[in-house]
Each structure stands twice: as structure tokens, then as C-alpha cells.
Design brief:
The complex is a heterodimer of chains A (293) and B (406).
Chain A (H helix, E strand, L loop, with lengths): L4 H10 L6 H13 L3 E5 L5 H11 L4 E5 L6 H4 L1 E3 L1 H13 L4 H8 L5 E3 L1 H6 L6 E5 L6 H13 L1 E4 L3 E4 L5 E6 L7 H6 L1 E5 L4 H11 L5 H16 L8 H13 L9 H7 L7 H6 L2 H11 L1
Parallel strand pairs in A: 1-8, 1-9, 2-5, 5-8
Antiparallel strand pairs in A: 3-4, 6-7
Helix pairs in contact in A: 1-2, 1-3, 5-6, 10-11, 10-12, 11-15, 13-15
Chain B lengths: L15 H23 L6 H11 L7 H12 L3 H15 L6 H6 L8 H8 L3 H4 L1 H11 L15 H6 L1 H5 L3 H31 L2 E2 L1 H7 L12 E2 L7 E7 L5 H17 L3 E6 L3 E3 L1 H4 L4 H11 L9 H16 L4 E6 L8 H14 L2 E6 L12 H6 L5 E4 L3 H5 L2 H6 L1
Parallel strand pairs in B: 3-4, 3-6, 6-7, 7-8
Antiparallel strand pairs in B: 1-2, 4-5
The chains are: A alpha/beta (293), B alpha/beta (406).
Chain lengths: 293, 406
């Protein structure tokens, strides 16, 4: 069943993800061509959210694999539960069972621990597999991933080959801390997510922050857009914007212009380093506020 | 190598005219894929195949939805992403009124199939033409081209780059290349020794050992060891290709090629008024062609040097990707900056915090009585670990002991 592109747009909106035209097209294409989607963009633009929203759209399970340096097959694919295996060996030896029988027993499904990648191909209904920050994993892991993404089968020496019962929808995200291999890039569709424009960010604030009014949301979005233009080390992402919006809403502020002091103080929600804090002085904050209002 | 899910092609209608139209679309699409390839996109058969499937789908009815679809398919990196719109518009929209019919792949009474075919066979150079003119009109003096990969830009520019190409003498190329390779070997030898020292201090990996010995009933026979992972040293070279450096540019371009060729992990950048990432072009095995491509990018002579700004671009867009904790950054420049020294100092400070060593090679040091008077150079010096001359092969060779110690 392939959804139309506009349907995807509508459904994304229904699950609370404010999508632009292009990302909806990319998600539609992913269905249409059955290819994984690689999302790149600055930290905090909502790459992971796309995976979550996609799962919600298809009412599918979201299986997430967070990559990190040193991630290996054991943590990503499967592992034997060797503590239980050892225990089983001891008890069965005590009971006088034959070696063959013990071996058969301890290398059965019961002792197999599913990790995200194996889980993703063994579901009845195709899940959404979110491989987060794939650039943090090592190159060897990337090659292994590539193999899995093309064959969708896993061979476990003691158990045999496990074929996929359903092909998951795969979303990969990358922060660009390392150059990904051309092979992986070519295997995937590509989408670059930028910081949302003011209107879209205001819409995101409205959908995610209950009880905030439209003018304030728009003011916040404009203010954040202005802050992003400043020369900061860590540019605030959408998550930071939402934090800030929640803070301002919690303080019952309705108009940023009326409360310059509160704006300056709560801006720590957007700032992540000491250097940036020093750069965004009261004067800068007031100047930005002046532009926004 | 990679099995791809086969998607059906847009069903080719059996009638003659329809077939011609579909064929024309395919030709056009192949032309578009070729244009992208000429612009440094990595487009293979699989992508073209999928693109045909897209053309046969409802998305192709409106150009508004076709563009993002093809963009998601054909782009693989952020720099691709930024340039795609321009190329797409130049290729498809440049053709004016024919656009709609071509995209739909539907026959139309106005165009005889024969003519469509003829159009479809127009060589891609000609089709790429609007692309070039656009690039020139808005690209001048703009630092906006942040990703900066400009390989295969156009043919005319290639011809005007002849001056640098003439200097390439096979012997000199070989000598420079050999030197770069020798420097690499020095650094590698060092690395291997370090690895051996580490091996002695390795620890037992208990978890994996137990796991591995389950089949022995838990008796530990096979032992699994742990040792520290070794990251090879990475070298990032930033080459100043401005007018004041023009005497040395050709020489260093060859050196760059040698470095990229022999280091497993090396990245090269060229800057004058803006910064260009050139390692992809340098990976070309053919030295002459690589140097050609590069001299193209090194153009911009007379525009002054904005070292600070180029470094800012580097820190902002490339540093995170190409620099790790075992990276030495080598800046080759005479330090004559037309930007402000403050900016240069600030960007040097940022760069210093990220990488292991900064080496600044200055060809002027080779001149007699030279002192680093240029204000830019003054601002940068506090952050430089090694400030060395680089006006000939010998001075580069003198770096060997230092590089070996990094």
C-alpha cells in the first residue's frame, strides 16, 4: 500500500509533525522506491523527529538504534545470553544430559537476545528502523549496515540464516562529524534538513506547546531566527526553541517586548556554552528584540 | 555489489508515437544524469533507473513535486543538495516550453516524434550551457559558495586555466610526489611503533572471553584481548592560492596531490577569497588531470586573500567533518590577509582548539631578512606550533623530523 504524497503531508500534520513540502516528497519517495532515507542537517533541526513521525504515520513500531563509536554487531544485531547459557550447561550436566542435547538446547532461540537490527527484520508488520547518528559509528559498522540494508537477512553461525519477515522502513540520520562512505550515500535517498523558516517554526511551537498564543509563538520564532544569525558556537535547534517557548509560557509572558529582562534571563534555554552566553549580552538581547518587535 | 529492489519502469506504451516519446524522456533523463555527473554528483545506473520510475509516477505531473523527488534521489551530500536546484532549473527549465511535455512523457501533436528524438540527442555540453552562464553572473565575489566544490564547472574556464598547466613538468611532478610519499612513510613508521607498545599493555576482555568459551562448557580456553584503537594521523592542508602566492601555487598543487594520494586520511583545501574543498578532484589518479581541475579552482588571482574568512568557512562547514583529535593542519600561505587580523586571530584560536597541531608554511621565510611583519601573520602566530619555510623541495623535506614526532 503506497500512500499519496499529499496524504503523507496530511498524516504528518495529524501526528503533530509540521512538515514542509520537500520532506513529504522524500518520505513518499522512500515508500515508492523502497529505499532508505538519509537525513543530514545541523544538530537540533529535528532529524530524529522525522523517524518518530514516520512511525506514527504508518502506525508502525519505531525501532531505534543509537550509534556510537565502537558500536559492534553484538550491540546492534544479536547476542547470545551467555550467562543463561552457562547456567543451563551446569544444570543439565548435573542432570546427566548428553553433550549434543545440551548444545542444541543452549543455541536455540530462547537464548538469543534480539538487538535493534535483528528486531527490525523479525516483526510481522514492517516497523520503522531509525538508525540515529550513523556518522558516530565506525567505518566497519557502516559496511556491515550496508550489507544488511541490501540483503535484509542475517546469518547466525550457530542458528542459521534468518530472513526478514518484513522489510522495515529505514531512516538514517547524520550530524556530519565524519564523512560517510559513498556506497552508503548512494544506497539512500538524501534529504538535507535546514532550520525551519519563521512561519514553520511558529507552527511547530503552536502544535507542541499547549496554551501558547499565536503572536507569542511568532515572536519567539522570529527571535530565535535572529539569534541563529548571531555568530554562536552552538546554534540553537528546534528543541531549544520549544524549551524556551515552554519556559516563557510557564512564566505567563504574552509579549516579549514587555519583558526584555525576562527574555534575557530565560535565553539560557537557547545557549549551550559559556562563550555564547558572554556573547549574548543584555545589549545584544535588547537589539535583537528591537528587530523582532 | 548491492542488490537493489527492482521497481517497474514506467510502462512503455506499445504504439509507435508513445514509444518515441518515452524514449525521448529517457534520453533527456540520461542527459540530466550525465550533467549531474559532470558536476561531481555520484549518479549511477540504479539512480537513473529509479528516476525513470519517478517520471512514470504521479509526482511527475507537476514540476513542483518532481524537483524535490529527483533531488532526494540524486543528491548524496550537502554540497550536492545546495547546487541541485541550479542545475535542475538550468537543464529542465532552460528548455522553455517543452518542459511540460517532456516531463509528462506524453506525446503531443505539436512535436513530431522525429524532432523530439533529435532534441533528445543534443549533446550534454550544449544542454549544460545555461548552467554555466548563471553560475558566472551571480557567483562572482560571493563567499556564499560555502561547500565550495566546484569541479567540472565548465569548459571555457578550463581553457583559461592553461597558464598553470604549462608549468607541469613530469620530472618535477615525480619529485614532489616522491617527497610527499616519503613524508607519509615517516609518519606511518612512527605509528606502527606506537601500536606495538600498546600491544604489550593490552587487557583481557572478560565479557567476550566468557562468551567465546560457552561452547567449551564455560572453561576458559580461548582468550579475547582488548587493545586501544589506533587512529591514523590525518593531515589537512589549506593552500593559499592568491595572487601573492602565485609563484608557488603550481608547486604546492603538486605537493597536495602527492599528500592526498599517499595518506590514507588527508583532506585538501584551496582558498583565496573563498575556500574550496579539493580532495575529491585530487583523488584523480591522473596527475595532469587532477592538477588541471585544481588549477581551475585556484583561479581568483587578483582578488586578494581573505584568510580569516576562509578559515571561518572551514571552521563552520568542514572542521567538524575532517578534523579529529589526531589531525595536523598545515596552512600554506604568505600571511598577507586583506581581511581583518582580528578575525584571523579568532579563527586560528578556534582551529587550534580542535586539532592536534597547526603547521604554517610560509614561502617568504626562505627570503633573506624576512620577519613576519604582515599583520595577519602576527595575529596568527600565537596559535601556530611550527612556523617553517617552504619555498622549495629541500625546505619541505626538512619538515620530515617534525612530522615524525607529531
Amino acid at each position: 500500500m503506497t500512500l499519496k504524497r499529499d496524504e503523507i503531508s496530511d498524516k504528518l500534520a495529524a501526528v503533530g509533525y509540521v512538515a514542509d513540502h520537500d520532506i513529504a516528497t522524500a518520505l513518499w519517495l522512500m515508500e515508492f522506491l523502497k529505499r532508505p532515507l538519509l537525513l543530514e542537517g545541523e544538530a537540533g533541526v529535528g532529524k530524529t523527529e522525522v523517524g518518530k513521525a514516520l512511525a506514527a504515520v504508518h502506525a508502525a513500531e519505531l525501532i531505534r538504534l543509537q550509534c556510537y563509536e565502537g558500536l559492534d554487531q553484538n550491540a546492534a544485531l544479536y547476542e547470545w545470553n551467555y550467562q543463561r547459557q552457562l547456567l543451563a550447561i551446569k544444570t543439565r550436566e548435573g542432570a546427566g544430559e548428553k553433550a549434543d542435547a545440551i548444545e542444541e538446547h543452549i543455541f536455540s532461540e530462547r537464548y538469543l537476545l534480539e538487538r535493534p537490527l535483528l528486531a527490525a527484520i523479525r516483526r510481522d508488520k514492517p516497523p520503522v528502523l531509525l538508525i540515529d547518528e550513523v556518522d558516530r559509528a565506525d567505518e566497519e559498522f557502516e559496511a556491515f549496515l550496508l550489507e544488511l540494508l541490501s540483503d535484509f537477512q542475517v546469518s547466525i553461525p550457530e542458528l542459521g540464516t534468518i530472513k526478514a519477515t518484513s522489510i522495515p522502513r529505514v531512516v538514517l540520520t547524520s550530524n556530519g562529524t565524519r564523512e560517510l562512505s559513498d556506497a552508503l550515500r548512494r544506497r539512500c535517498l538524501y534529504h538535507y534538513i535546514d532550520f525551519p523558516e519563521v512561519e514553520r517554526e511558529a507552527k511547530i511551537i503552536l502544535t507542541r506547546t499547549p496554551g501558547i498564543d499565536t503572536t507569542l509563538a511568532l515572536q519567539i520564532a522570529r527571535m530565535v531566527a535572529a539569534v541563529r544569525k548571531e555568530d554562536l558556537r552552538k546554534v540553537p535547534g528546534v528543541a531549544e526553541t520549544l524549551d524556551w517557548a515552554a519556559t516563557l509560557a510557564g512564566l505567563e509572558i504574552h509579549d516579549l517586548r514587555q519583558e526584555p529582562e525576562a527574555v534575557y534571563e530565560t535565553m539560557i534555554c537557547l545557549i549551550k556554552t559559556h562563550e555564547d552566553r558572554a556573547r549574548l549580552t543584555r545589549e545584544v538581547s535588547a537589539r535583537l528584540l528591537g528587530k523582532v518587535a | 555489489m548491492i542488490a537493489l529492489p527492482i521497481t517497474p519502469l514506467p510502462g512503455p506504451p506499445s504504439q509507435g508515437e508513445r514509444e518515441h516519446a518515452a524514449f525521448g524522456t529517457r534520453r533527456r533523463l540520461a542527459g540530466f544524469a550525465r550533467t549531474l555527473r559532470d558536476n561531481g554528483f555520484k549518479v549511477g545506473l540504479a539512480e537513473t533507473h529509479d528516476a525513470l520510475a519517478i517520471l512514470g509516477s504521479p509526482a511527475a505531473v507537476r514540476a513542483v513535486s518532481l524537483k524535490p523527488a529527483l533531488r532526494a534521489l540524486f543528491c548524496a551530500t550537502h554540497s550536492d543538495w545546495e547546487r541541485f536546484d541550479e542545475i535542475f532549473d538550468a537543464f529542465w527549465r532552460g528548455e522553455g516550453m517543452r518542459r511540460r511535455q517532456t516531463l509528462k512523457g506524453m506525446p503531443s501533436g505539436a512535436h513530431a516524434p522525429g524532432r523530439r528524438l533529435a532534441e533528445a540527442f543534443v549533446p550534454h555540453e550544449a544542454l549544460g550551457l545555461p548552467d554555466r552562464t548563471e553560475r558566472r553572473s551571480d557567483g562572482e565575489g560571493e563567499a556564499a559558495d560555502c561547500q565550495g566544490r566546484r569541479e567540472g564547472v565548465s569548459r571555457t574556464e578550463l581553457l583559461s586555466a592553461a597558464d598553470l598547466r604549462h608549468i607541469v613538468d613530469p620530472d618535477e611532478v615525480a619529485a614532489t610526489h616522491a617527497l610527499a610519499a616519503r613524508l607519509t612513510r615517516t609518519m606511518r613508521a612512527r605509528l606502527v611503533r606506537r601500536e606495538q607498545v600498546r600491544r604489550r599493555g593490552r587487557r583481557l576482555d572478560l565479557r567476550r572471553t566468557i562468551h567465546r568459551n560457552v561452547s567449551h562448557g564455560g572453561t576458559l580456553i580461548d582468550l579475547a584481548w582488548r587493545r586501544r584503537k589506533i587512529k591514523p594521523l590525518r593531515l589537512v592542508v589549506l593552500l593559499d592560492a592568491s595572487g601573492s602566492m602565485s609563484l608557488y601555487t603550481a608547486f604546492f598543487v603538486r605537493f597536495l596531490h602527492g599528500v592526498v594520494d599517499s595518506f590514507r586520511e588527508a583532506e585538501a583545501f584551496v582558498f583565496h577569497t573563498r575556500l574550496a574543498h579539493v580532495s575529491p578532484s585530487l583523488r584523480d589518479r591522473d596527475v595532469a588531470r587532477a592538477v588541471d581541475k585544481l588549477s581551475l579552482m585556484a583561479q581568483g588571482i587578483g582578488g586578494g586573500t581573505r584568510i580569516g574568512e576562509s578559515l571561518a568557512t572551514f571552521n563552520r562547514w568542514h572542521a567538524r567533518r575532517v578534523i579529529n583529535s589526531r589531525t595536523a593542519v598545515m596552512i600554506v600561505s604568505d600571511g598577507y590577509d586583506t581581511g581583518t587580523p582580528d578575525q584571523l586571530g579568532e579563527e586560528m584560536r578556534r582551529l587550534r582548539r580542535r586539532c592536534r597541531r597547526i603547521i604554517w608554511l610560509n614561502p617568504l621565510i626562505g627570503w633573506r631578512d624576512y620577519t613576519p611583519q604582515a599583520r595577519g601573520m602576527q595575529a596568527a602566530l600565537p596559535y601556530v606550533d611550527l612556523f617553517a619555510p617552504a619555498h622549495n623541495l629541500e625546505s619541505l623535506a626538512a619538515l620530515e623530523p617534525y612530522l615524525a614526532r607529531i
